[in-house]
Amino acid sequence: MTSATVRSHGLSKSRITAFEQCSKRLWLGVHRPEVAQYDDGAEARFDAGHFVGEVACSLHPEGVMIEAEPDLSAALAETARLIGEGHPGPLFEATFQHGGVLIRADILERTAKGSGWTLAEVKSSARAKDYHLGDIATQLWVMEGAGLRIDGAAVRHIDTRFVLEREGDYAGLFADDDLLAPARKIAAARPAVAAQALAVLAGEEPVREPGPHCADPFDCEFTAYCSRGLPQGPEWPVTVLPNGAWKKWARQGVTSLLDLDETAMTKPREAMIVAATRTGIPFHDGEGARAAMAEWSYPRAWLDFETISAAVPRWLGMRPYQQVPFQFSLHLEQADGTITHHEFLRCDGSDPRGPCAQALVEAIPAGATVIAYNAGFERGVLRALAGHVPEHGAELLAMAERTVDLLPVARKHWYHRDQRGSWSIKALLPTIADLDYASLEVKDGGMAQDSFLEAIDPATTPERRWALEEALKAYCMRDTWAMVLLARRLAGTG
Fold it and tell me: Do the strands 117-122 and 64-65 form a parallel or antiparallel pair, or are they unpaired?
């Protein structure tokens, strides 16, 4: 099989994974890739995973990368040559073909005695996941079918206990979960799976209706394509009911929220959602909201953080996936209604935690009530900052203790049908003010992280960095101003 055939009509590890999720996903990915729709974060996730792979390889400076240049046939030939000549390894992206399937192994290492090899499939997750086993099984079957002796096979994942202590030293960042034994059992059935998948590729587009498989184990990029032409559902589906409350009604055959009778419902929140949806009149308990916020003393510090979280720690003292604040917005409200805005943003690539802590201490007066939305996040950031910046530890811990949460107040005392079952600040803001996030360049937390990473990239021009900083400031400020407006609307003063 030529490399061109492998690319267009053959199988790979990822294609078998797609087939096992849905035969139509495999077929569309090969024959109709142009109809795929990817979410905004797909490219960033791919780049992050690629970087994790680079770091894993860097821990083996003696290893050899097998390039697919000018094509995969060259990678196959180079892999065969290196193994045939007794290369000690490790080999990166070693390429093998068997039974119509071509795979590229992340890291191949010689066993201690040198007679066999161990496979490491590098993942950016904090543990091995169920679907990883299938990836290992496919590679195991192909490599052993190609004549290689495999004595070990593992998922090499991020070890969240790791702490970066020396710049650029990532020894200990990864841990291996050995999956050789269970993978062998799955590998035994891979010939039949490969034959079925190849038959799908050789045929017409499979017929399969959308269902739960569209998001298990991955969100499918062809869901919109497969859903075209299906009958439109009700304007207010029962799935609007949050936290899975809709499932009991769906099991009874209810599809429209308006088919429910709020007067007969036993759970107040569900009844509130149905009534507000049916009438179009928002539910608003102003007295209850005022009572809930009555003890929030002044000055009030309306606070929101933007954070970066990465599998590979960037700064000293950082753990994998630790939330590190690079920005905050703060609206400081006095008892007389006076409000001033304060902000922090660090985009020079240095560790932002120390300057962020300093800016917080300077901006938030001692004794102020700190108000956040879904405040557990802000409390966690403040406590982590206190541990990392001990000179401000006492003040930061005191802020965390004084942090109150606006979310439960909103959830209990306000509902507009346009929220469609969500109490996120982005769902609420358009229902209380002629204001939203659509006009902003940065529209959500994921875009904020991507913008920050672009801003700190040394290759980013000063002009582009300035534009990114302004966009980040506008987004974070919108979050805290939204809280101020929401509190006023809840209290009936705005």
Answer: unpaired
What CA–CA distance (Å, rounded) separates 412 from 155? Answer: 44
This prediction has a pTM of 0.88
Among 135, 484, 137, residue whose Cα is nearest residue 338: 484
Hey, how many other C-beta atoms are within 10 angstroms of the C-beta on 203?
10
Asked if the bond preceding 462 is cis, omega within 30° of 0, the reply is no
Residues of the chain with pLDDT under 70: 1-9, 494
Q: How many CB atoms lie within 10 A of CB 270?
A: 22
Query: Tell me: the pLDDT tens digits for 413-427?
Result: 999 999 999 999 999
Q: What is the pLDDT of residue 404?
A: 98
Which two structure tokens, joined as six digits, stand for 13?
């590890």
Say how many residues make up the chain: 494
Instruction: Give the Å distances, CA to CA, from 487 to 272, 285, 295, 297, 429.
Output: 20, 12, 13, 14, 11
One DSSP character per residue, 53-119 reads: HHHHHHT-TT-EE----S-HHHHHHHHHHHHHTT--S-EEEEEEEETTEEEEEEEEEE-TTSSSEEE
Name the residue among 321, 325, 331 with its Cα closest to residue 345: 325
- Give Cα separations from 340 to 302, 311, 343, 478 (angstroms): 10, 36, 10, 14
